[in-house]
UniProtKB/TrEMBL annotation:
Organism: Salinicola corii
One GO term of the biological process aspect: protein import
Transmembrane stretches, start-end: 20-39, 87-108, 128-150
Family: Belongs to the exbB/tolQ family.
Compartment list: Cell membrane; Membrane
Topology within the bilayer: Multi-pass membrane protein
Keywords for this protein: Cell membrane, Membrane, Protein transport, Transmembrane, Transmembrane helix, Transport
Any one GO CC term of the record: plasma membrane
Main location: membrane
Protein name: MotA/TolQ/ExbB proton channel family protein
MotA/TolQ/ExbB proton channel domain boundaries: 70-164
Length: 177
């Protein structure tokens, strides 16, 4: 299988070098998103099971120190799940700004080329404006998809926090029954 760079060259030609930066940010964003998905599916569930088993093995479940320890354990587990969320939000915030940067630099190029040719061809200007707005479109598209993922991840984290507390309380009740 031969990898051709022609689509990337076309993309750079169509929207400028800023699209490459947006593409790199998108790749980082989606790689981190996939990492969280795999962490959630495999590592976190195993860690949750180990935590609940460790809680059940404890003799004391009702004292202040036991309840504080349970809260610390659950907070640490949830914090590991929440770890990359600020980075994901940062990458999402950068995408539209990069798109705007690409549009502004593209518009500068359009006006500069129009000034150099000393012509006011509407067709050339329309093509340049269309080409200049492509980075904004790409930046916004990446940001929207990333925002959907982060919103879903935060919803999962809130639900998991509540479920973890419930499971630990229920596990003690079930072990005493």
């Amino acid at each position: 299988m031969v990898l051709t760079l022609e689509p990337i060259r076309w993309l750079i030609g169509a929207g400028g070098e800023v699209l490459v930066v947006i593409m790199l940010v998108a790749m980082a964003l989606f790689a981190m998103s996939l990492e969280r998905l795999f962490y959630w599916r495999f590592t976190h569930r195993r860690a949750r099971r180990v935590l609940i088993e460790a809680w059940i093995r404890r003799r004391d479940h009702s004292s202040w120190s036991a309840l504080t320890l349970r809260e610390v354990w659950t907070s640490e587990l949830i914090a590991r799940l929440r770890l990359p969320v600020p980075w994901l939000k940062l990458l999402i915030a950068i995408c539209p700004l990069l798109g705007l940067l690409g549009t502004v630099t593209g518009m500068i190029q359009v006006f500069d080329s129009l000034a150099l040719t000393e012509s006011s061809q509407a067709r050339a200007m329309a093509d340049g404006v269309a080409q200049a707005t492509l980075p904004t479109l790409c930046g916004m598209a990446v940001a929207v998809v990333g925002l959907l993922f982060v919103t879903r991840l935060e919803q999962i984290i809130r639900r998991e926090d509540q479920r973890l507390h419930d499971r630990m309380a229920r596990a003690v009740e079930d072990s005493h029954a």
